[in-house]
Design brief:
By secondary structure, the chain is mainly α. It has two domains: about 35-195, no CATH class; about 200-480, no CATH class. The protein is built from 19 helices and no strands.
């Protein structure tokens, strides 16, 4: 199921909210203890989340259940009173291997087979038959979430969970299940058993959901039409290529930040508070600053669970550079099993290492901030070419077009007529304005006044009309 469909907006969400708050009314009427109410609500959310996730393929529920069971028993063994250090370590290692092994098989086994065949062909040997494997939606997100529970119990940050439905609810929670943000267990552990429900938080959640909904439908999908036309074209002028990659930068930002806003808003409606996932990333003045602002839940997860355990910056400068590169390489692979993502990760890792090498007192920081922001945005655009291209060959072709080596045949002239229509130029201008806006959606929705509520109604109506009018576009991060 997808947030941006009539089934979710008109049927699933109202039904879940109605049943969720009906449980609260019934508990108040018959005097059910608060702890029992939380468990009943968690059980309802677990059932709703499995329905939400199983809408695509019910068999995928079993895979998520397996990962949940592995980490539940792993956490149980790790947090058992009197457990020896050796047993705790073995339990953690087993949880990590089984969880990442599941992710690795479904996400990377085909990639491994394909590249093995290339190697065998180069050596003149026979190839193997490639096993076609369907990638379960959201597996990268819920595996990381489940693992954060086992690791946090091992580190002593949180106690082990006694109620399996509570942990299963955390792993499967439908607002952020398939495209994040990555919610770490230690940030919501208390909320699973005690969370407050106020009209202010609920109304803020509704507002944030509507804003994210509009980001996706009105801005991201429209920018995506421009990006698709440019990246799928056979003939590109330099202007077309730059226009297309800027459109993709807008598409992926408003698509992913829109989903995150919707997820955070949906969480607030049921009493959960998730951390923000974006903070004006295209106003970053360096790549290091960009990763403090972009997909914050992933970058902090990689920092706390990979970069710091590898040694961070505590073992000398060269080890720091290696750690940064390794983390970003793995971050690239997390996004997808393709060489474009490997190179994308290496590109960002190299830039992070280079910025650490030159330090904050380098000549770069003597430039005015607008120049640093513009330079960072251009560097990010180069990385988006890799991220969007279907192969390294296509990425090289697109880079060539950006630097004046593209073809300018008749198809390029036709493309220009498709890209620079009045409507598309207006969309790009709106995207640019919202990208540099000092007020972001999560800030605007913190408090809801009557004027804001009145403004949200027509926005929601227009977004719904646009959703029904245009062709369906899934969220970009569903593929990861």
């Amino acid at each position: 199921m997808v947030f941006s469909t009539y089934i979710f907006v008109f049927y699933f969400l109202p039904a879940v909210l109605l049943l969720y708050y009906l449980l609260g009314w019934l508990s108040a009427a018959i005097g059910i203890p608060a702890s029992n109410l939380s468990r009943a609500r968690n059980a309802l959310l677990l059932l709703a989340s499995y329905i939400f996730y199983g809408w695509w393929n019910p068999w995928f529920i079993l895979l998520m259940l397996f990962v949940t069971v592995v980490n539940y028993f792993g956490g149980w063994m790790i947090g058992r009173p009197g457990a020896s250090h050796r047993k705790r370590t073995l339990a953690l290692v087993a949880s990590v291997i089984l969880s990442l092994g599941t992710l690795g098989f479904f996400k990377y086994f085909m990639f491994f087979q394909t590249n093995l065949n290339h190697l065998l062909g180069w050596l003149g040997a026979g190839t193997v038959r490639v096993l076609r494997i369907t990638l379960p939606i959201g597996i990268s997100f819920y595996v990381f979430q489940a693992l954060s529970y086992s690791i946090d119990v091992y580190r002593g940050i949180v106690p082990r969970v006694r109620s399996f439905p509570d942990l299963a609810c955390y792993v499967a929670l439908y607002p952020q299940l398939v495209a994040g943000p990555i919610v770490r267990y230690n940030t919501v552990a208390d909320q699973l058993t005690r969370r407050s429900h106020t009209w202010e938080r609920f109304s803020s959640g509704v507002a944030l959901f509507i804003l994210g909904f509009a980001k996706k439908i009105i801005l991201a999908d429209a920018a995506g039409e421009i990006a698709d036309a440019a990246f799928d074209a056979h003939g590109l002028t330099t202007l077309d290529a730059w226009f297309g990659v800027v459109a993709y930068a807008f598409q992926i930002y408003f698509d992913f930040s829109g989903y995150s806003d919707m997820a955070i808003g949906l969480g607030r409606m049921i009493g959960f508070e998730f951390l923000k996932n974006f903070n004006s990333p295209y106003l970053a003045e360096s790549i290091t600053d960009f990763w403090r602002r972009w997909h914050i839940s992933l970058s902090t997860f990689l920092r706390d669970y990979l970069y710091i355990p590898l040694g961070g910056n505590r073992k000398g400068p060269w080890r720091t550079y290696v750690n940064l590169t390794v983390v970003m390489l793995l971050g690239g692979l997390w996004h997808g099993a393709d060489w474009t993502f490997v190179v994308w990760g290496a590109y960002h890792g190299g830039l992070l290492a280079f910025e650490r090498y030159i330090g904050k007192k380098s000549f770069y920081y003597s430039f005015p901030r607008p120049m640093r922001v513009a330079a960072t945005f251009v560097l990010v655009l180069f990385s988006w070419v890799l991220f969007r291209s279907a192969s390294l060959h296509e990425a090289i072709r697109y880079f060539g077009a950006m630097f004046g080596m593209g073809s300018t045949d008749e198809s390029a002239l036709l493309l220009a007529g498709q890209l620079y229509t009045r409507g598309k130029l207006i969309v790009m201008a709106l995207c640019a304005c919202f990208v540099v806006s000092p007020v972001q959606a999560f800030q605007w929705a913190e408090t809801i006044t009557w004027p804001k509520a009145v403004a949200l109604i027509p926005l929601f109506v227009v977004t719904l009309m646009t959703m029904f009018w245009q062709s369906f576009r899934p969220f970009l991060y569903f593929q990861f």
